[in-house]
Specification:
- The complex is a heterodimer of chains A (about 375) and B (about 300).
- Chain A has helices spanning about 1-30, 35-50, 50-75, 85-100, 105-135, 140-160, 165-170, 195-215, 215-225, 230-235, 240-265, 275-280, 280-290, 300-320, 325-355, 365-375.
- Chain A has about 375 residues and is mostly helical.
- Chain A contains 16 helices and no strands.
- In chain A, α8 crosses α9.
- In chain B, α7 packs across α9.
- Chain B contains 12 helices and no strands.
- Chain B has one domain (about 15-235).
- Chain B is globular, with a radius of gyration of 20 Å.
- With about 300 residues, chain B is an all-alpha fold.
- Classes of the chains: A mainly alpha (about 375), B mainly alpha (about 300).
- Chains A and B meet through α6, α13, α15 and α16 of A and α4, α10 and α12 of B.
Amino acid sequence: MRQRFETLIDALLPVIATLAALAVGALMLLALKVNPIEAYAALWDGAFGSTNALAETLVKATPLLLVALGICISFRGDVINIGGEGQMIIGAVLATWVGLTFTGLPGWLVITLAMVAGFTGGAVWGGVPGVLKAYFNVNEILSTVMMNAIAVQLMNFLLRGPMIDPSQAQLASKIPQTARLEDAFHLARLAPTRLHLGALIAVILAILVYILLWRTTLGFRIRAVGQSPFASRYAGIKVPRYMVLALLLSGAFAGLAGAVQVYGVNYRMITDGSASGFTGSAGFNGIVAALFGQLHPLWSIPASILFGALLVGANSMQRMVQVPSALITVLNGLVVVFVVSSEIWRRRRQRRRMAAAPEAESPSKPDQAQVRKEAKS
Amino acid sequence: MITDLLSTTVLIGILASGIRLATPYLYAAIGETFGQKSGVLNLGVEGQMLLGCFAAFYVAYTTGNLWLGLLAAMFVGALMGLAMAFVTVNLHAQQGISGIGFYLFGLGMSELLFQRLMGTVETVKGFPKIYIPGLSDIPGLGEIFFNQNILVYGAYLLVPLAWFVLNKTTLGLKIRAVGENPDAADSLGVNVARVRYFTIILGGTLSGIAGASLSIALLNVFQQNMTSGLGFIAVALVYFGGWKPVGVLGGALLFSMVNSLQLWIQVLGIPVPSDIAVMMPYVLTILVLVATVSRVRSPSALSKPFERES
């Protein structure tokens, strides 16, 4: 009974952490002389208040989920991928190029090709830091951050030059954007909302990633390397190879997120010079969602919806009670800090449990992955 | 047009602005060096800088006193450092990830405060250039090295100071011991937690100054997300410099010189796509990381939480 209660607490830790973040947010709202209940009501209403609001929430949640899936893979493999922003951009650029080049082909084929292109682009952009980490000992946090910056400049260069909308190229304004994708290439929408097929793709992929991580040898090896590289090497697993694979797959999902964003929402690429101008910081917020979902692909689904809701709700909060939507970025940051900080209670309880009944713990428990990761990194 | 770059005035201009632009990197990266030497990876530098940027600008703008602005930035940075220290030292949170949390916090908070308290982009008159009789008059060199503002000089003084503290003082010995082998340090009576608190708060304070150097000494404005990745590069520079202040200086200069060159290329209208030029320092950093990291060893306990065996 007591044990079940403690498991429940463990599962609820992220929720408690979020409530704590919202409480801090409420204090900040009070400091801004805004009634927090009114503000949070506006947020809730903006995110779930109508069919349209709900659809917008799911639209925002889609790239978060796709990035989060990749994060589940890489963090389970004990490689930290901070490069979601850049991987999304490169995926989007390649996918857009496909759509603008193969204009004669049928829509379903181009969409498929574009998704593959996005996946591949992200894989390359994640794979490079993977190789650098596995074979050259370069810290992946740093290289992925650098790759983000490189991706942004590459996007700016392409959208101002080789890939610029031909009609913009003639104008003096020269808005850095590509031409619009043909209507036939757009992902199907659930009219009249903006909810598109990408959301469904993301959910299906979440199930596939779950199967990959817990039902295949590849997934087992990635997790094994993440839990204990030394034991893995001893067991004959080629550790560097699985490090590369973890980052490569992680990047691929982010790249797909970029492709889906172009084909489902924007129908073209446009840059304001920054990464978040295109990604809406999904590359970072996806990390938040994955952590919140305890690095579990299926739990990442509700987690992504929650953070999608926060993002959409923030806009309505800004309209209704004039609180800058940046408040949500602050709350996201606090959620991350609180979630990683709350891990200590889980670990403590676990140690007590292990001391009490060492044989009761099976080594494949995800909780233990956390412990080992902590001990290693 | 390429030959324009080779004229003396332009060369002096490139070098002088290169020296100047290294300032924020130096403060932030030296601060981060202290943290990492003691075994703590602080990825939240960018967030600390952004808050420092805003605090310095806002206080300087409203009071008209640049020094008060600088103090405010230091205070805000130190507070962020204190929070980071609590989370990493007491709660053993995974450092790479909590750093991202602090980054998002600083990013959002600086924007929130900016929109709420100011709303429009304003400018301040930043720290003035300091004229040093004699030195500033040396042809060429004077313009490059001795015609800068106080924060620029401070950044370069910080390098030997950091080297001295880390290598020649008991405090430095403790910091290095805690970063290499916290268990051994602990058994010899070094208070691991206190040392790490000190380095993280110091790092936060210096990141705050780094932010202030942008908003009230170099650019003299505040804009949302105005550091745009500079704090992350500062973290990279610590690896780049092999955890040595002099190495960090080299990396910072390399970065700022390439940046400065890139700015001048745009000013002179040389037909190199500016986006590609902006990209170069990042590519260069990756290449240098590849070339150096495998040779230099990081502090053994880097990013490992310390827990007493009991």
